[in-house]
């Protein structure tokens, strides 16, 4: 029930969970990577592999590129690990670079191609499995993106492509110029941010006009065999141990219910939060934001948990704060 990944249809035997690598490399500073940063990267990778997580998510901007560099050092020291991994990265966001060069999005052919080269250099690889466009670029020209994708594909640098944070119309528009299918759409989905659920039950209601999540996006991805991935699946730890003394009552009640279910099922708090996401029939693939070995192992418990319809709705309605219409 909702456990089959669309990625399997595209030839990737990916794990249900993805290790997000944003936290590697010593964080968002310009300081050089240290030996301790590399040690932590080894520990995180080992923890992921030990619980059968074989997919790793990057972006060229994470920790100003240091996340990929740290991961690349792990692979340099242990090249045999590459065969066990599915590696994806993202491009398309440019950081502020001074006067006249603001933070912006860039889907130009030149930037996509140069970004791929930078990703491969930092990872120390000749190719990655999947490249995602990070956030929609208002100046996107699909033909230009298609040309860039075609070149890096033919050069053997990228095997497959996807997007992040895109609507059905944006995906269809881009897909119209591509020779092969987009296979991933990575979105912010979690138990605290409920627009993606609310949009589906608010059709033909006034409440639906206040929602920003594109109606039908998850259904569209299912029909097109596009893997839905969730970034921020743990809602920044709101329901898995974070201090909630200054948070709204709905969040505190939801955290208490998560605690109750965790005790009933003998599972971690993280496992319940992720199991709620994975109970949805769109086959959501959570991208874990943590690089802590203990939390990675705690998250992996989610793959053995199946919430009932009633448990799923209890969590949803509690977090929503009001009854369903």
What would you note in describing this structure?
- By secondary structure, the protein is α/β, with parallel strands linked by helices.
- The protein has twelve helices and ten strands.
- It has helices at 6-9, 35-50, 66-77, 109-123, 142-154, 168-175, 195-201, 217-223, 249-265, 269-278, 293-300, 309-320, and strands spanning 18-20, 55-57, 86-91, 93-94, 104-105, 128-133, 158-164, 182-188, 227-231, 285-288.
- The strands form two sheets. Strands 1-2-3-6-7-8-9-10 form an eight-stranded parallel β-barrel, surrounded by four helices. The protein has a two-stranded antiparallel ribbon with strand order 4-5.
- Helix 2 links the parallel strand 1 and strand 2.
- Helix 2 (35-50) crosses helix 3 (66-77), helix 3 crosses helix 4 and helix 9 packs across helix 10.
- The radius of gyration is 20 Å and the shape is globular.
Largest sheet: 8 strands, parallel, barrel
Spell the H/E element sequence.
HEHEHEEEHEHEHEHHEHHEHH
User: Could you tell me the number of beta strands?
Assistant: 10
Strand order of the largest sheet: 1-2-3-6-7-8-9-10
- Average pLDDT works out at 95
Total of helices: 12
Q: How big a fraction of the residues is strand?
A: 5-15%
Radius of gyration: 20 Å
Q: Gist?
A:
The chain is of the alpha/beta class and 325 residues long. It has helices at 6-9, 35-50, 66-77, 109-123, 142-154, 168-175, 195-201, 217-223, 249-265, 269-278, 293-300, 309-320, and strands at residues 18-20, 55-57, 86-91, 93-94, 104-105, 128-133, 158-164, 182-188, 227-231, 285-288.
